[in-house]
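Record pair follows.
FIRST:
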Amino acid sequence: MKIAVIGAGGVGGYYGGLLARTGHEVHFVARGAHLEAIRASGLEVKSTFGDFIIKPAHATDNPADCGQADLILFCTKTYGTDEAARQILPILSSTTTILSLQNGIEASDRIGRIVGFEHILAAHLVVCGH
């Protein structure tokens, strides 16, 4: 499965990293120093469930570089939702699913208004440690 992670921070990096570890083709979209660190050293995940590194990791700051995705993990901060939704339009196919893993009760609706609600799968996510 080809997966694009839009917002490869704590949530996107963790879940995208787990998917990459199981053999899926995962492309991480990040910015600035975080992007450069992934490009240079791979995606490093530290977790109470075990640390790991995805190296090499596909990393870019432009979602269009990912190519069409089967699944998009949408993990941006809520204030970046509309802009990021517009940026993923080139990587959608008629069968792409977008899983919104964001704070904010309206986030998935905002994405759906831009890309089409037929692509949206909203989720409630709780991340906690031991």
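SECOND:
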Amino acid sequence: MNLIFFGAPGAGKGTQTKIVSGKKNIPVISTGDIFRKTASSSTELGQKVASLINNGKFVPDDIVIEIVKNRLSEDDCKKGFLLDGFPRTIVQGQELDKWLVSKGKKIDKVIFLDISEKNVIGRLASRMVCKVCKREYNIVTLPSKEEGICDICGAALFQREDDKEETIKHRLAVYRMQTQPLIEYYREKGILYTVDGNKTVPEISAEISDLT
């Protein structure tokens, strides 16, 4: 099964894709993770991506599409995949569809986590991340056992720069302008399934389980 998880920053895509990945035994393809890995390399592409990210700019469609195609061509994606953070624009969605058709594949379902702006800000402003293993916590809904310390590896937790309130509002504005039109794109294709992202993690997971 090939799935796209879609929604505003903080909608819970990362949490839910990990749950579905474990149940279906298919990989989560996160463009954020791919970008960070690419940016850490010493290649020309890596340096270009690093410069864009460090300056708060979006990676151009052609580079994003190339990186995602390469990742989806790897062996672990043969039985299916979960896309988190891609596509972000209509162009990216169209190019993904064209490429999948050329491979005899398609997107089966798009899971749209619909969440209010108030809850997005509340969630992200409360998010903490482990410096070492990158596990995410939330000081309100999913706190670590010991404040500021990761349950898994014992490393310190920190707040990402893009999780500060002023940055969150900017990210939401960009999301509404560039990414939200994809809702209609996939609705017209008849593969969009809306889930209430304001609910608890278990409630959302149960609803997604019925769809997948």
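COMMENT: The longest strand covers residues 2-7.
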